[in-house]
Design brief:
By secondary structure, the chain is α/β, with parallel strands linked by helices. It contains 13 helices and twelve strands.
Length: 310
């Protein structure tokens, strides 16, 4: 059974995608391949989920005899399953780590990395928070690093309320968690009082419910909740499609990936067919759900990369 986050993001992504593309009938990629059947399994990033789950829904209309399942256990959790050989592809909101590469090599799993879109990790606060509009990376490090104290807004800026900050963060298996730790905290530990969840909708709900809350997740989750959350500018730069694409929204502009097993591409026609469908539709879907699509040349190069795996 799909969890509530998957269902929520799927509903959002599919409704937007169908409106933008006129449904399957208007999608030139939605052509049934005669005699194609089987199953395709994936897992991984919750950030990539709005793109991938909606593509899966569209693909099901095109290839009714191919069953595609996608779990959402976080980037790290997805790689664990990929290493174990229980999935054909793994969604990731960060590049694969050296230790994950080593484990895949040890397991004899060759893979291909494909970039799907760009994202801007977005820092958000409650709508009733009227004092924070922009933070620096240094502010975030001071706020989010565990130092044994109870953090207050006034610790960051004396003119802000002397009230404790309530933290919400993706879980430790999340690539978004890894990315934030790398670019903000370095060697420091994340504040222990933070509520952690692999389900981004849990984070959204928590931040909506507390005026002293702050959290972070992928840009698409902010886009779908911007009426009830405020995005924090970073060094005065607002996260949006333009600043994410240009890299001006630094250091939180980042690529989103899918990693696919080469053996699955070679041995399972349904896997190759599905991954081709993913690349053909990822740009339009990324834009529809709030991420930033890549230049057309990047998707063309990705198709060439897939074709080269024989």
């Amino acid at each position: 059974m799909k969890n509530m986050k998957t269902l929520a993001t799927l509903g959002l992504a599919c409704s937007i995608f169908l409106a933008a593309c006129g449904g399957t009938e208007g999608n030139t990629s939605a052509k049934t391949s005669e005699g194609l059947s089987g199953s395709v399994a994936g897992d991984g990033s919750s950030t990539v989920a709005p793109i991938m789950e909606a593509i899966v829904e569209e693909y099901a209309q095109a290839e009714k005899d191919v069953k595609v399942s996608v779990g959402v256990s976080g980037t790290g959790g997805g790689f664990e399953k990929f290493i174990a050989g229980s999935t054909d592809f793994s969604n990731a909101s960060r590049p694969i780590k050296d230790e994950e590469k080593a484990k895949l090599d040890e397991a004899g799993v060759d893979y291909t990395e494909l970039k799907l879109a760009n994202d801007g990790l977005t820092i958000v606060v409650n709508k009733e928070n009227t004092w924070v509009d922009s933070l620096t990376v240094e502010d975030l490090a001071k706020m989010w690093a565990e130092d044994g104290t109870a953090k207050k807004w006034s610790d960051i800026n004396p003119s802000w309320p002397a009230e404790e900050i309530v933290f919400y963060s993706p879980g430790t298996d999340s690539g978004t968690y890894d990315y934030f730790n790398e670019v903000v905290l370095g060697d420091a530990d994340l504040v222990k009082s933070a509520t952690l969840s692999e389900d981004d909708n849990v984070l959204v709900t928590g931040i909506k419910g507390d005026k002293n809350a702050i959290g972070f997740f992928g840009y698409a989750y902010y886009e779908s909740n911007k009426d009830s959350l405020n995005a924090v500018l970073i060094d005065g730069v607002e996260p949006n499609a333009k600043t994410i694409e240009s890299g001006e929204y630094t250091p939180f502009s980042r690529p989103l990936f899918v990693y696919v097993s080469n053996a699955a591409l070679k041995e399972k026609k349904e896997v190759r067919n599905f991954m081709e469908y993913v690349i053909d539709n990822a740009g339009e879907m990324a834009k529809a759900v709030g991420y930033v699509q890549l230049p057309d040349a990047d998707y063309e190069e990705a198709r060439k990369t897939l074709d080269s795996v024989k």
